[in-house]
Structure formats: C-alpha cells, structure tokens
Predict the 3D structure of the following.
Amino acid sequence: TILGTVSAIGIHSLRGRKRKAITFFNNIPMLNPDIITGVSLFLLFVSLGISQGYTTVILAHITFCTPFVVLNVMPRLTQLNPNIYEAALDLGATPMQALRKVIIPQLRGAMLTGFILSFAMSIDDFVVTVFTKGNQGLETLSTFIYNDARKGGLTPELRPLMSIVFLTILILLIIGNIRSSKQAKNKKK
C-alpha cells in the first residue's frame, strides 16, 4: 500500500508522455493473465539467480498488487486541490511534513480501498504463487487450500479460517464505506 501510494504520487507529478508510459507499464500486471505473470516472474527470478521462497513470493505479490493501489489512489489525487500542498509549504511545512500532514490524510480512503483490494488479490492468487514459491514447503492460503482439496477434501479447520478471512474483508469494506460517506457529508457542509 505504501509503495503503491508513493508510486501514484510520483506518477501524478509527471506530465505528458512520461506519465502515459508509466501508467501503461503500471497497468500491465493487471491486464496480463496470471499464468503469464507467474511464468514471467519465474523466468526472471531464475535468470537473476534468486532462489525461490519467501522473497520471490513477496516480490511477485508486490508486483501484481501495487498497480491496484495505484489505480485507487490516482483518481483521488486528481480530485485534490493542488493549492493545499503549496499553502502548507508557504506556512512553513517541509515537503515531507506537507505530504504527511496534508496529502496523506486526504488519501486514506483510497489507500484503505487499495489495501483491501490488494490484500484480497494476494490471498486469492494461486497461479503466480505456485510459480514463484518453489518447493521449499512454503504455503500461502491459496496453495494450502489447493493441496488440502487435492488430498481428498477440505479439512474442518479450514472452513472457519475462510469465514474469518471473508468477515475481515467485509468489515474492512464496511468501515471504509462508512468513513468515505461521512467525509462526503462533511465536505457538503
């Protein structure tokens, strides 16, 4: 989420062809089928000599989750009044303070939405994980469910876990919607 937000702010500050090119490359992981992303990342890690395991799975999930955060934060950035950042600088804030105390609070809703979406995508992803985890016994939720189902059915312990994950995501979405509707009402006043 942090990387996606920083990337969105960087992309938003660009103009012209650079902005269009980076936005295009940002969208590639979302447009690619999972199998192509998984095989591509597998080949990249093998060619770089990176052994498969936690590091490659984390890098792979960052690769395909970051664009979803960028996609959520970019529209909110375009809605912001550009003068508030400059006003904070004029009032003595450093650029980092202005970012942290003025811009980031206004992006929280979009950041939360991006986090929830990327979290759900990461939990759900099976194909990219299979190609990047190697055979070191690393299990994510999706690979655990697959392996458990392949052995002859889902274990009883898995059902409550799936319910907890579903309820957590549902509660986070409800909280995010309530907060954004309250913010919209406060802006109208």
The CA atoms of residues 116 and 173 lie 7 Å apart. The chain has a mean pLDDT of 86. Residues 2-188 form a domain with the MetI-like fold fold (CATH 1.10.3720.10).
